Every structure is written in structure tokens, then in C-alpha cells.
UniProtKB/TrEMBL annotation, chain A:
Residue ranges of domain SUF system FeS cluster assembly SufBD N-terminal in the record: 177-232
UniProt xrefs under InterPro entries: Fe-S_cluster_assembly_SufBD (IPR055346), SUF_FeS_clus_asmbl_SufB (IPR010231), SUF_FeS_clus_asmbl_SufBD_core (IPR000825), SUF_FeS_clus_asmbl_SufBD_sf (IPR037284), SufBD_N (IPR045595)
Pfam families (alphabetical): SUFBD_core (PF01458), SufBD_N (PF19295)
UniProt similarity note: Belongs to the iron-sulfur cluster assembly SufBD family.
GO biological process, one term: iron-sulfur cluster assembly
Source organism of this protein record: Rhodosalinus halophilus
Protein known as: Fe-S cluster assembly protein SufB
Residue span, SUF system FeS cluster assembly SufBD core domain: 241-483
UniProtKB/TrEMBL annotation, chain B:
Species whose genome carries this gene: Rhodosalinus halophilus
Encoding gene per record: sufD
Protein name listed in UniProt: Fe-S cluster assembly protein SufD
InterPro entries according to UniProt: Fe-S_cluster_assembly_SufBD (IPR055346), SUF_FeS_clus_asmbl_SufBD_core (IPR000825), SUF_FeS_clus_asmbl_SufBD_sf (IPR037284), SUF_FeS_clus_asmbl_SufD (IPR011542)
Residue ranges that the Swiss-Prot or TrEMBL entry lists as coiled coil: none
Highest rank taxon of the organism: Bacteria
Pfam hit, one: SUFBD_core
Domain SUF system FeS cluster assembly SufBD core positions: 172-397
One GO-annotated biological process of the protein: iron-sulfur cluster assembly
Length: 512, 427
């Protein structure tokens, strides 16, 4: 019986909220594992393992050297301890750094050749059949008619990463027509070395932090996106990460480049089997937005959170950063964080271009023994830059949920603007909710506002709604949903439903 | 965990010229404080709570020289009837001080009381300081406990007719002063404690205050216009049931000021308010670091900090509310705001909440920006010159913090001072 069952429902938190939180945090739908033969690299981490990963991916020498440099650097680094998370020391030599389904050694040519176990995996995860076919790597599937009931504009191109390798990328041909490159990063290193060389590590440098450096040394796969100048990417792009193998760390690397005047929306989903041992996931995501480019990056993070006693679960140590290099560029991070036993994640924006914009919307739910330390950094360097942070943390059970963020206005970031709002909701008296914002203002024409109450939703809008007979809670829910809606609608249907539910919860009881 | 050698060396260099007083009952507390200090080391620029304020001038062995500030203004609180206790560069000045006698309280100097074998202050000296290091170490306070030779010990048993006023004079350009005060407010008693003056070229001051059930302590501090002085102060307060502690500081210049306030709400329905108004101009760094722990139900805490900064001045606010498990019905409020009057000034803030109880109302807000153009336009449209209009708005901005002082005459006096200072700078 979960701690939530014994809970008295308090004023401002209704039974529905408690139920939904239990549903989201309590039962894990993706906890099964696929029994499939795997190729492993030997356990542990050495320079040879780094070389082996590079070799398995068929990488050129410059890439191998890049990795080895990162590995050397990593040996001198210490694990960070400043976050409000507490977990047993990780033995980095007890992990596998590379795992690949045996059947993927050669890319299958038809549906019949694909390991049925892989197909089954995707089916169980709820990836539609049409995509499943392509995911399984069947050539020619791109040209098949869209599945019934799925309109063309709801098409989502998926790159599926199974343990260490990309299994398949859908709709590549259609994207190619638009000039968009969407492939696995291992492919990009071979096919588009000039782009990878130019941008890889330019946002998150090799020596950025302990986990990013580790990732730089051992990343096995991930997604690569390049949107050429002036192109509006014709469909949503998505990566689906699945950890399957035991004692395997997943280290994916995503690189998204939005060239001048382009637009792309990118989604990320992740699940893992239910196991008693904790597993490590250390990803790096780099986004580059050139002049007038816009990137939306949405995550529904649903790694296995561990059981009710806090056994098992994924350690999610992720570095995500966007560089708004060009003037008027825009990056929007949206995250719904419900999984992982330990989360350490700060999707950030470097607002370098004048008039560039960064946004961060986050809903983090922790339950049982989960620990989340998440937030964002908005570094304002260019003039007239704007950023907005909306973070909702919900904790239940014995969990701990921390918002940690930085807003920094540099001296030359004149006339910049930041608005931050972070609200926490606690369900039960055994959990914790913390807020650790850092605010650095180094010029006087910029305005920075940090609020931790919901009473500061735009007063005019609130007044308007209330005039029409809504009570305050309803009005605030409407307003917050209003600005969150466009983000939520960008998510695939099943994600959007889940996320919308979560938004409703996050507002519950926050007014009053 | 043992300190790395460079840190130990730095500490040894810092304390080489200091000597621990050979006194009576405080001696054990002093040695314990030194042992604590040896474990935590002096603050360094990489320490979490020193990332916004460079500790170097506060920890280096010799106090940086500070020219004496020529001042033709009447000293703060001069118009008030109060019991004056004067320290010049950290040394008690008997001639300038009043008799240490007032109905409703017992006052002694630490230097005199410390020779006795037993004293009520034994249960307070270094005790709250020691508790205050978890989870954030405050090495400068431990340094003070170990080496401060003087200060006052005040036990409040009734409601004295006038405030006790600690006056800190600065007469030597290189003085490095340490004072350590203990205040014990007995159940139902009430005291107003005033502090003002530059004190020394470098001043390290600690107040430990224990407020018993139903007791009240008002603390009003003025850190004046003295341009080159440096100060690191700590206030440690522990509050019993239904007790009240209100502390207000006004800081106007001084190159370096670090005010730390550590409050524990231990009894139900305790009330703790900490507020500060600061006006910084030029080479000025002011830091308010506040840590309030709610350990009992139905307590209220409030932090209100306002900073006006210009000509490259820096204002820092690090405020934290910790609500322990079980401290239900907590009401915690925190606001930190800065008004940046020109391009070069900066405001650095870290308003933190750490909450382990579900039935609480905690909020914090922080804003930073320029003066409101619309308001300025409004005033100018009514014929008020720009400089004066800016001052009116600046004063209105600071007023919200000054209003936190309960005594209206004191608040009025401080507002008048701020007004005069702003007008004077305008010329």
C-alpha cells in the first residue's frame, strides 16, 4: 500500500489530484523488458572501451581523438555534489558502456528480417504500426500511405534509440525533400562530418561538467537534426529512447542545428524496464539557433522511477543547452518530468543574439523515493533578450523536488527581461519541495522578476476572467493553460493528454 | 574531515596575530569554536554562500586600512533617551558610556564577567553560534567566538524604560575589532537594542540572542556612511513559544558589509522579522545572508530587503526559509528588491525555500530594475526636477523596508536620515 492511500485529503488538494499523482508516479507501465540477444562491450571504462565504441560506430579518427580527449579530461573531474539529491556512489567500472541488439549488426532489409522481439517492443510501447515498420529499419516503408486515421499533418518522424544504437529513423525521405537532415548521430558523423565538426561540443564543451564529459567520451548514439536556412520542418521530429539491457548506461548525444530563419519542433520520450538495480543515463543535448530560427524541444521523461521502497530506477544526469546565436532566435524548452529515481537536469538557454528569446516550461512530479533537482539557466548576453521560466513542482510520498535556476543579465544585455515563476505543491508531510534560484543582474535597463506565488498571473487577464464570473482558481487555470497550450499541443497525442492532465494537477491548490 | 593544508595554512596565518583571552567560563567555548574553525576553514570564493561576495578582505591577516570618515552630522539615535555603551575600535570606552544599570535588565561586559567561574551566559556564549553552522558553515562567527575579548551580556527580566544602545566608534585607521554580545530575554520580557557606528577599519561582530516564551527583542542597526570600513556581522537568534524577534538594518556605504542572520523558530507561534534598507554608491558591497529555520508549528517569518545601488555598487541577498518536517501552518514570506540607478551597479540574489511540511504558505519574490519611467514622468510633469523626483521614488522604494520597524519614532528618524543623505548627494 502506498503512503498516498493513508493520506487525508487536505484543503486545496482533491482526491483526483492524489489519484492522478499515484497513477503517474506509482505504477509504471513500461517496466517490462525485451529478452533479446545483445552485443556488449566489456564492462568498465578505459581508453580502449572509448576506442571500441568509436570503432563499432565506424567513426573517423578525428572523432575518436575527440572522445579520447574527453575521457582524459573526465579522469581528472569529480562528481558534482551540490544538488539536493542523495544516492549511493556510482561505480563507473561496473557499467556496460555499449550494448546493441545482435540482430542490428546488419541493417534489416524487410519486415521479415527484423527481429520480431524488437517489433514487439515498439508495439508494446505504443508506437504506431506505420512508424514501427520504419523503426524496424525496413527500407521503402517511407513511401507507404499514412496509416488510417492519421492525418498527414500529425506525422511525427521518429528516431528510436534502443540501448546504445539507433534502431531506425522514420520519414527520412520526406524530410530529405525539404532539405532537413534527421538521422542518428553516428550516421551524421559519417555522412555530414563538416556539420558535426563545426557544431558538436560548441554549446556544451567537452569539459563542461562531469556527466557531459563522460558522455562526450562514451556517447554511443543519439539524434542529429539540421534544418537548412528558411525551412520550416514539415513535421515533428522525435526521439524515443529505450534502455533495455541490464547494468548498461545510456549515453545519448543529440545535436540540433536550426539555420537562419528555420523552424523545428522536437520531442523526446524515454522508458526503461523495471529493475532492482539503478541504471545510469547521462545524455547531452546541444541546440544551435541561428538568426531568426526557432526551436521547440519537448520532453516527456518517463524513465523507470524505482519502486515504492526506492529500489532501482534510472539516474538521469542530463546536460541540455541551447545557444541562441543569431539575432531574433528563439528556443523553447518544455519538460514533463515524471520518471527517474534521481534527476539532475537543467535545460538552459544562452541568449547571445540580440532580441533572442528563451522559454522554459516545466512540470516535475516526484513520488515515493524519487529525487528531482531540475530547473534552467537563462544567460542573457545580447540586447533586448527575453526569457520566461514557469516551473511547477509536485512532490508526494517521501520524494524531494527542487527547482534550481539561474537568471543572469550581463552588463551588455540592455533592455532585457525575465519573468520567473516557480510553484511547488506538496502532497503529504513526508516529502520536500525546494526552490534555489540564482539571480544576477548586472545592468539597470533590464528587468528581472522572480515570483513563487501564483497571485502574480497577469492582473489584467485575471480581472477580465473574473469579470466574466469565473472564480480565481478557474481563471488562473485558464490563463496558465492558455500559455501552456501551444506547447502541449505540439506534443504527440498520447504525450499531450498526459501532460495536460499534469498541468491541471500542478495548478491545483496553488491559488488561495 | 581534515582541511587541506593550504586552507590550514591560511587559517594559521589569519589567527597568528590573535590571542585567545585567558578567561574563565568562556574559555571552553572559545577552544571549541577554534576546533570548529579548524574543521571548516575560512570562507573561500568557491564556497556556496560566498560566491557573490569576495571574502578575501575579511579573512586576510591584516585589516585593510580605512580612512576616518569626516562627518558633521549628529550621530544616529542621538535624539533618543537610551542607555549608551560605547566601544572605540572594539575597546570599551567607560567615560563615554553610561552606567551599566537599568531597571528590568542586568548588563555586564564580557571582559569583566568572563573571569567568574559561573555565569548565565555560559549557556549562550558560542552555543547558538555552534548550532548555526549546520547546514551552512559560518567560519567568521566561530573566529569571533574564539577570539572576541569583549562585548556585553544582557539579561532582560522586565521591560526597561529605554533602549540599550551600542555605539561603535572608529578612531584608528587600521583597527581590527571583535565584539561578541549575548542577550537573554526572559519569559515575557522585552528589550530594544540599538547598534550604530563604523566600529573599526574591520569589524567582526556577533550577537547571540535567546528569547524565551512570550519575550520580545527589537534590534535596530545603522551602518553609517563611513566609506572605507568593512564589517562581517552575525546575529544568531533562537525563539521560544509566542516570542518575537524583529531586526532591521540600514546600511549606507562602507566598502564591504556582510550581515548574516540565523534564526531558529523553536516554539509555536513565534514571530521573526528581518528587514534591511541599503543605499550603495560607488565602491560598495553589501550582502544580506539570512537563514530562518521553522522548527515549530504556526510560526511566522518575514524578510524584506530593499537595495538602491549606483555608480558600480553591488548588493547581494541570500535568503533561505527552511521548514522542518512537522512545522505545519508556517507562514514564511520573503521579498528582495533592488533599484539600479545606473549602468554599472549590480544585484545578485539567491532566495531559497526548503520545505518539508505540506500545510504551509511560503512565498518569495525578487525583482530588479531601473526606476519606474512612468512614475518619474508623472512627477516631472508636475514640475518636480528629475533629481528630486528620483529621490522621492527611491525613498518610497526604501520605505517598505523601513516600515518594518515597529517603533514609529525610530522609523521616522531613519527615513529622515535617508532623505537627508539622498538630498545631500544630489547637491
Amino acid at each position: 500500500m502506498s503512503a498516498l492511500d493513508k493520506l487525508d485529503v487536505k484543503e486545496g488538494v482533491d482526491r483526483d489530484t492524489v489519484e492522478t499523482v499515484r497513477e503517474v508516479g506509482g505504477k509504471y507501465k513500461y517496466g517490462w523488458e525485451t529478452d533479446i540477444e545483445m552485443d556488449y562491450a566489456p564492462k568498465g571504462l578505459t581508453a580502449d572501451i572509448v576506442r571500441l565504441i568509436s570503432e563499432k560506430n565506424g567513426e573517423p579518427e578525428w572523432m575518436t581523438d575527440w572522445r579520447l580527449k574527453a575521457y582524459e579530461r573526465w579522469l581528472q573531474m569529480k562528481e558534482p555534489t551540490w544538488a539536493f539529491v542523495d544516492y549511493p556512489a556510482i561505480d563507473f567500472q561496473e557499467q556496460y558502456y555499449y550494448a546493441r541488439p545482435k540482430s542490428m549488426a546488419e541493417k534489416p532489409k524487410s519486415l521479415d528480417e527484423v527481429d520480431p522481439k524488437l517489433l514487439e517492443t515498439y508495439e508494446k510501447l505504443g508506437i504506431p504500426l506505420k512508424e514501427q515498420m520504419i523503426l524496424a529499419g525496413v527500407e521503402g516503408a517511407e513511401n507507404a500511405a499514412p496509416a488510417e486515421g492519421r492525418e498527414a499533418e500529425r506525422k511525427v518522424a521518429v528516431d528510436a534509440v534502443f540501448d546504445s544504437v539507433s534502431v531506425g529513423t522514420t520519414f527520412q525521405a520526406e524530410l530529405k525533400k525539404a532539405g532537413v537532415i534527421f538521422c542518428s548521430i553516428s550516421e551524421a558523423i559519417k555522412e555530414h562530418p563538416e556539420l558535426v565538426k563545426k557544431y558538436l561540443g560548441s554549446v556544451v564543451p567537452v569539459s563542461d561538467n562531469f556527466y557531459a564529459t563522460l558522455n562526450s567520451a562514451v556517447f554511443s548514439d543519439g539524434s542529429f537534426v539540421y534544418v537548412p536556412p528558411g525551412v520550416r520542418c514539415p513535421m515533428e521530429l522525435s526521439t524515443y529512447f529505450r534502455i533495455n539491457a541490464e547494468n548498461t548506461g545510456q549515453f545519448e548525444r543529440t545535436l540540433i542545428i536550426a539555420d537562419k530563419g528555420s523552424y523545428v519542433s522536437y520531442l523526446e520520450g524515454c522508458t526503461a524496464p523495471q529493475r532492482d538495480e539503478s541504471q545510469l543515463h547521462a545524455a547531452v543535448v546541444e541546440i544551435i539557433a541561428e538568426e531568426d530560427a526557432e526551436v521547440k524541444y519537448s520532453t516527456v521523461q518517463n524513465w523507470y522511477p524505482g519502486d515504492e521502497e526506492g529500489k532501482g530506477g534510472i539516474y538521469n544526469f542530463v546536460t541540455k543547452r541551447a545557444d541562441c546565436r543569431g539575432d531574433r532566435s528563439k528556443v523553447m524548452w518544455t519538460q514533463v518530468e515524471t520518471g527517474s529515481s534521481v534527476t539532475w537536469k537543467y535545460p538552459s538557454c544562452i541568449l547571445r543574439g540580440n532580441d533572442s528569446q528563451g522559454e522554459f516550461y516545466s512540470i516535475a512530479i516526484t513520488n515515493n523515493h524519487q529525487q528531482a533537482d531540475t530547473g534552467t539557466k537563462m544567460v542573457h548576453l545580447g540586447k533586448n533578450t527575453r526569457s520566461r521560466i514557469v516551473s511547477k513542482g509536485i512532490s508526494a510520498g517521501q520524494s524531494s523536488n527542487t527547482y534550481r535556476g539561474l537568471v543572469s543579465m550581463h552588463p551588455r544585455a540592455k533592455n532585457s527581461r525575465n519573468y520567473t515563476q516557480c510553484d511547488s505543491l506538496l502532497i503529504g508531510d513526508t516529502c520536500g519541495a525546494h526552490t534555489v534560484p540564482y539571480i544576477e543582474v548586472k545592468n539597470n535597463s533590464s528587468r528581472v522578476e522572480h515570483e513563487a506565488t501564483t497571485s502574480k498571473v497577469d492582473d489584467d487577464q485575471l480581472f477580465y476572467c473574473r469579470q466574466r464570473g469565473m472564480d480565481e482558481e478557474e481563471a488562473v487555470a485558464l490563463i496558465v493553460n492558455g500559455f501552456a497550450k501551444e506547447v502541449l499541443q505540439a506534443l504527440p497525442m498520447e504525450f499531450a493528454m498526459e501532460a495536460q492532465q499534469l498541468v491541471a494537477i500542478s495548478l491545483e491548490g496553488s491559488v488561495g | 574531515m581534515a582541511l587541506p593544508q593550504p586552507k590550514l595554512d591560511a587559517l594559521d596565518a589569519r589567527i597568528a596575530a590573535l590571542s585567545m583571552p585567558e578567561d574563565g567560563w568562556p574559555r571552553a567555548a572559545r577552544e571549541a569554536a577554534l576546533a570548529r574553525l579548524r574543521e571548516m576553514g575560512l570562507p573561500g570564493p568557491r564556497d556556496e554562500y560566498w560566491r557573490f561576495t569576495r571574502p578575501d578582505t575579511l579573512v586576510q591577516a591584516e585589516a585593510p586600512a580605512a580612512a576616518l570618515f569626516e562627518n558633521d552630522e549628529a550621530p544616529m539615535f542621538d535624539a533618543f533617551d537610551r542607555l549608551k555603551i560605547v566601544f572605540t575600535d572594539g575597546v570599551f570606552d567607560a567615560e563615554a558610556s553610561d552606567d551599566l544599570a537599568l531597571e528590568g535588565i542586568e548588563i555586564e561586559r564580557l571582559a569583566e564577567a568572563a573571569t567568574a567561574d559561573l555565569h548565565w551566559a555560559r549557556d549562550l556564549y558560542g552555543v547558538l553560534e555552534a548550532r548555526g553552522h549546520s547546514p551552512v558553515p559560518r567560519p567568521l562567527a566561530a573566529l569571533n567566538t574564539a577570539f572576541a575579548a569583549d562585548g556585553v551580556l544582557i539579561r532582560v527580566t522586565g521591560r526597561p524604560s529605554k533602549p540599550v544602545s551600542l555605539i561603535y566608534r572608529h578612531e584608528s585607521e587600521t583597527s581590527d575589532a571583535y565584539l561578541h554580545h549575548c542577550v537573554k530575554v526572559e519569559a515575557g520580557a522585552e528589550l530594544t537594542l540599538l547598534e550604530n557606528g563604523p566600529a573599526a577599519a574591520r569589524f567582526n561582530n556577533v550577537i547571540e540572542a535567546e528569547i524565551a516564551d512570550g519575550g520580545t527583542l527589537h534590534h535596530v542597526r545603522a551602518q553609517g556612511r563611513d566609506h572605507e570600513r568593512r564589517a562581517a556581522t552575525h546575529v544568531f537568534a533562537r525563539l521560544g513559544r509566542q516570542s518575537v524577534f524583529k531586526s532591521f538594518s540600514v546600511t549606507v556605504n562602507g566598502v564591504m558589509t556582510r550581515n548574516e542572520c540565523v534564526i531558529e523558530l523553536d516554539g509555536e507561534e513565534g514571530v521573526a522579522h528581518v528587514a534591511g534598507a541599503c543605499v550603495g554608491d560607488g565602491d560598495f558591497h553589501q550582502d544580506d545572508t539570512v537563514f530562518i529555520t521553522h522548527a515549530a508549528e504556526r510560526c511566522e517569518s518575514r524578510q524584506v530587503f530593499k537595495k538602491v545601488l549606483r555608480n558600480g555598487a553591488t548588493g547581494v541577498f541570500q535568503g533561505k526559509i527552511l521548514v522542518k518536517p512537522g512545522a505545519q501552518k508556517t507562514d514564511g514570506y520573503q521579498i528582495s528588491q533592488s533599484l539600479l540607478l545606473d549602468e554599472d551597479s549590480q544585484f545578485l540574489a539567491k532566495p531559497e525555500l526548503e520545505i518539508y511540511a505540506d500545510d504551509v504558505a511560503c512565498s518569495h519574490g525578487s525583482t530588479s530594475g531601473d526606476i519606474d519611467e512612468d512614475a518619474l514622468f508623472y512627477l516631472r510633469a508636475r514640475g518636480i526636477p528629475e533629481g528630486e523626483a528620483t529621490d522621492i521614488l527611491t525613498l518610497a522604494f526604501l520605505a517598505e523596508a523601513v516600515e518594518e520597524i515597529e517603533d514609529e519614532t525610530l522609523a521616522g528618524d531613519i527615513t529622515a536620515r535617508l532623505e537627508a543623505w539622498l538630498a545631500r548627494r544630489r547637491g
